[in-house]
Design goal:
With 121 residues, the chain is α/β, with parallel strands linked by helices. The chain has six helices and five strands, in the order E-H-E-H-E-H-H-E-H-E-H. A five-stranded parallel beta sheet has the order 2-1-3-4-5, with helices on both faces. Helix 1 runs parallel beside helix 6.
Length: 121
């Protein structure tokens, strides 16, 4: 399962449709409470974080990379993306522990491959 926190319906729809196309289930998270529910119910492989909603993105990063995170939660891959002009937010996502940080263009170009490579066995 891939979770995603998209800032708008366009990205949410694109991620979900691409996941369906490549056979990777993708589910949204809109809050930390929703993240907690998904973590209990799903085998989460990665979380995609839209830095256009940096408050939620950084809260998720801090939750999964913070002191209270379990070993399994720390193993969840974090991938953040945002506009190339959000230089400080992109750098902050790296600093806080994201495994991959992409510009919006890179994310758009790599989305299908990102999801396909994380398809359940």
């Amino acid at each position: 399962m891939i979770l995603y926190a998209a800032a708008d319906l366009l990205w949410a729809t694109r991620i979900k449709a691409t996941g369906e196309k490549v056979g990777t289930p993708c589910r949204p998270i809109r809050s930390l409470e929703m993240l907690e529910m998904r973590l209990k119910d799903e085998d989460v492989r990665a979380v995609l974080l839209d830095l256009d909603n940096s408050e939620l993105a950084f809260a998720v990063i801090d939750r999964l990379r913070g002191d209270g995170a379990t070993k399994a939660e720390r193993a969840i891959e974090l991938i953040a993306w945002g506009p190339h002009v959000m230089v400080s937010e992109l750098a902050e996502a790296r600093r806080r522990g994201c495994d991959r940080v992409l510009t919006r263009g890179q994310f758009a170009n790599e989305l299908a491959a990102l999801l396909e490579s994380r398809r359940p066995d």
